[in-house]
Amino acid sequence: MPQQVLHYPPAKRPSELCTKIFLRYAVFSFNAIFLLTGMTLVGFGMWTLLEKWDLTLLMSPLFSISVYSTVAVGSLILISSIVGCTGVVQERPSSLVAFIVLLVVVFMMELSVGMMSYITYVQVDNATFPKYISEVTLKEWGKQDSTTNAIDNVQMKYKCCGSASYKDWKNNSVIKSLNTTTPDSCCISRVSGCGKIEHPSNIYTKGCASVIEKGLRLNMVLVPALSLGFSVIQIFGVIFSSALTHQISRSRKFVRKKYSY
Questions:
Q1: Most CB atoms within 10 A, among 9, 78, 114, 144?
Q2: Do 123 and 137 form a contact (C-beta atoms < 8 A)?
Q3: CB under 8 Å, gap of 24 or more: what pairs does 166-175 form?
Q4: What is the dihedral of CA 137, 140, 146, 150, to 10 degrees?
Q5: Which tops the pLDDT comparison, 57 or 12?
Q6: Which has the closest alpha carbon to 98: 113, 86, 110, 114?
Q7: Contact, 78 vs 99, CB < 8 A?
């Protein structure tokens, strides 16, 4: 009696079945990490906007854009994770292709956010940063309500005054017109008009530029590291997802061909 030989279809061979199972677990594991990263970015971005909004307003517009972009990237990652999980669980090639496209978009956005945060870090770490705060930010006090409130809140909360020192306020035109030395928010014991008295015992002598730098340093270091670091991992996500899409499509083509006869 001749020995029976088992002929496996192209998509059903044991080796390819193992490959498919491995790819499913690899993409699913990647999605879990991807989801946690998205939640981290959204949480970190929202925390910055809510907790350090005043500091953010005193920075260059590029930093504000990078914070909003961090939240946007995190939100897109959450959506991408849902699409990717749907494609893996249901073995749906269209969802996996959409997931791959989203991965590429997120990859580009992460590089952009990382570069913006790094540029801001270089600007803050530069010796000219106190000059920027003095000549650009402080000059807006008394002219724009949002900037005025932000500067006052920072000076009261962090017990600082001016950029490098309280003497930076002499360049503000509104302060000059009010015939005062500093805003009342610089006073240690705050009463109306206390800023008119130039006495070190009642005015914060520490500048706010160093406070802003320390308060936002975590953002300017962590966001580029997280964005650029995970963008490298996403390359493997694209590779595994592409391979899994190919395996699923191949299986479906064989099934359609088999039942078409």
A1: 114
A2: no
A3: 166/203, 166/204, 166/205, 168/133, 168/134, 168/138, 168/207, 169/138, 171/134, 171/135, 171/138, 171/139, 172/138, 172/139, 172/141, 172/142, 173/139, 173/142, 174/141, 174/142, 174/143, 175/141, 175/142
A4: 40
A5: 57
A6: 86
A7: no
- Evaluate if residue 76 carries a pLDDT over 90: yes
The residue to which tokens 């956010």 are assigned: 113
**What is the rounded distance in angstroms from the CA atom of residue 48 to the CA atom of residue 212?**
13
Q: How far is CA 88 from CA 77, 93, 241, in A?
A: 16, 9, 9
DSSP 223: H
What type of residue sits at position 36?
A: L
Joined together, the tokens standing for residue 58 give 């005193």
Return the exposure string of 59-70: e unless at least 16 CB atoms fall within 10 Å of the residue's CB, then b: bbeebbebbebb
